[in-house]
Amino acid sequence: MPRITYADASNPGLEMVRRHFRLDSVAAGGDEISKIKRILTFIHNRIRHDGMHSNPGAMNAIDLDRACADGSRGLNCRGLATVLNECFLAMGFKSRFITCFPRDYKSDCHVINAVYSRTLKRWIWIDPTHNAWITDEKGNLLGVKEVRERRLAGLPYVLNEEANWNNETKSTKEYYLDEYMTKNLYAIEISTHYGFGTEQNVSHSITLLPENANITGFKVEKATCDADWFWAAPE
Questions:
Q1: DSSP letters for 78-121
Q2: 3-class DSSP state for residue 158?
Q3: Helix, strand, coil % (nearest 5) of the chain?
Q4: Which of 57, 103, 207, 217 is most exposed, with the fewest beta carbons within 10 Å of its own?
Q5: CB-based contacts of 43: which residues, under 8 Å, 6+ apart?
Q6: What is the rounded distance in angstroms from the CA atom of residue 36 to the CA atom of residue 119?
Q7: 138: burial class by Cβ within 10 Å (0-12, 13-18, 19+)?
Q8: Residue 95, CA atoms < 13 Å, CB-side half-sphere
Q9: Angstrom distance (rounded) from CA 8 to CA 25
């Protein structure tokens, strides 16, 4: 399988992202998890989720943010996850935006972020559309891999109290996790490279599928059923 690569925070484009969003101030102080949550909430509050419009053509964090600056529009889930991903990369976090597909894809899927926590030694679930993260019953942060496993095993998983849509509607575990995201965790697509303007450049994709998967409605470039490889720690 190909190696998944991540641009370094010293990349000129990512340095512009750090300055544009003043991320040093946003993330100042606290431990690794506090920084991740603050950057998430900052972008969630700064740019509205707007599923009624396609994203602007220039798919990098700075241009996407500028397109929404006058308040006349927001970004769909992919646009929000793109902005947040570049912010995380700019601050030295290994981060992916991931597309979560249902088995029978027609028009609705969801894009969130997976951020690698060096402290926890796992990828954690971060969703800018809902200002959301997921924990177990003891408050330990979980990633998509762990949520999938716990769902199949009938073990509990918890949505954070702060989760909401556009600071207007509280996001509930019953809808967001048990209904909407359960549907959208059948196939998970990642890119082979993440950096500034990833969406504008040629990048390949890998999709994590269940054994003996049966999918319709979307094209898989390269597939794997190896969840341990897919969610391995970044190099």
A1: HHHHHHHHHHHHHTT--EEEEEEE-SB-SS--EEEEEEEETTTT
A2: strand
A3: 35, 20, 45
A4: 57
A5: 21, 80, 83, 84, 87, 128
A6: 12
A7: exposed
A8: 29
A9: 20
User: Which single residue is written with the structure tokens 């606290």?
Assistant: 30
- Residue among 228, 56, 223, 83 at smallest CA distance from 145: 228
Rounded to an integer, what distance in angstroms lies between the CA atom of residue 103 and that of residue 100?
Answer: 10
Q: What are the tokens at 186?
A: 């059948």
Angle between helices 32-46 and 77-90 (to 10 degrees): 140
Nearest to 144 by CA among 168, 162, 127, 164: 127
Q: How far apart, in whole angstroms, are the C-alpha atoms of residue 43 and residue 83?
A: 8
Strands 223-224 and 205-208: parallel
Dist. CA 234–CA 194, nearest whole Å: 12
Cβ 214 vs Cβ 75: under 8 Å: no
What does the block give as tokens for 123? 């990828």
Give the containing element (helix H, strand E) for 165.
strand 164-165
Q: What is the pLDDT of residues 18-36, one digit of tens each?
A: 999 999 999 998 999 999 9
Query: What residues contact 212, with CB distance under 8 A and at least 6 apart?
Result: none
Token reading at 46: 């700064």
DSSP state for residue 127 in the 8-state scheme: B
CA–CA distance, 79 with 46 (Å, rounded to integer) = 13
Strand partners, 126: 113
Q: How far apart are CA 101 and CA 138, in angstroms?
A: 28
pTM above 0.85, yes or no: yes
Q: What angle do CA 151, 179, 87 make, to 5 degrees?
A: 85
Give the pLDDT of residue 202.
61
